[in-house]
Amino acid sequence: MNFQSAGKTLHLKKAPDDEAYWLSVRETMNPLYVNTQLVNTRRGPAPLVVREKVRELVDLSLSYELDEYEPFKEMKESGSSVEIRTLLADYFGAPADEIALTRNAMEGIATVLNGFVLKPGDEILATKFCYDSNLAILRQRALREEIAVKLVDLPFGPASEEEILTAFENAIGEKTKLISIPHVVARTGLVLPVKAISELARSRGIFTFVDGAHSAGHLDLRLEELGCDGYAACLHKWMYGPRGTGFLYIRKEQIPKVWPLFASWSDKPADSIEKFEEVGTVFKALPASIPEMISFNRKIGQAEKSARLRYLRDRWATRLRSHERIRLLTDIDAAPGSGFGGFVVEGMDAEDFANVLLEEFNIHVKAFEMEEDSSMKGIQLSPGLANTTEEIDSFVEATLAILARSHNSFSQAG
Question: Looking at the whole model, is its pTM more than 0.70?
Fold first, then answer.
């Protein structure tokens, strides 16, 4: 069936507004929320099939000589296997010899940001919207190795591809060797034009590294088409896999330029992606459930997932953006768009708004303040597949009620 989104016609197996279907998906996930949870940036509820697989394997994972039994027989100590790497490679559109299994996005991020070869005086470009842990790694390396870290100045809110590219082009210097960017700005939903940035960087001999924690399983993407040199992601957020699983992608010709976090004890060559998987013993019940996770996502379809997440975002953002006291930080007409959205309530502190919403309406949203710039603050929503349109509509009605109630104080302040 066809569905219109951001001015484009999508050919989908299931429409994003087919509520009977998406309620059936929710049933397979059985989220254990204690309130209406509209923030899913930390983790998503793993579907029952994944949870049951992990439970099934817990005892075996903790037993003696576990490597003698399936499904562990073909797995390395790190939990990786040819099957798992091939499944991830096929899903995300990259050769299997460019995909390494990791325990989370942070492990892949730390591998590249610490391991990419630099020398004193070299420069790394990042942004204010990079995850704070990513920036902490860069600053530690800057202190340790006398390299420079520069933050590219990007708009807080909607921004065109041209604006973003111009900002990076103006920031690149002769010493720039690495660009580190988030694919999706979690607070505002801005999707950075990774392909265009990567093309610009490659033309200058610069390595482009992408934090894909919020795009893997969220956007309909193919790594080979993105064109970046490296990409790290976790599988417990938008792929709905078990916590403690992730992957690192590095283009084949760039692998020798990155040192692994742990020295390879099996003499893997410098150009082998598997050198990044030698991290010691892991709890194998977690990666052993990745096939069930992939099957869950394939059954729904990534294009369908992405369209549903954008639909949920548009359902609240379209109604609220016309309110005089709401300033959207998200361009809901941009393509590709994410399911994230952010906004500012004029005349009301973000923390106060979030607290009232939770205490009086039992709805959880995220009040945020950017670590790099305290003037960048607001409210963020990131509904997931387990959320319903009824929950979205309840949030809108609660927001309108709060705004109406505080109208007098806002008018007097103005």
Answer: yes
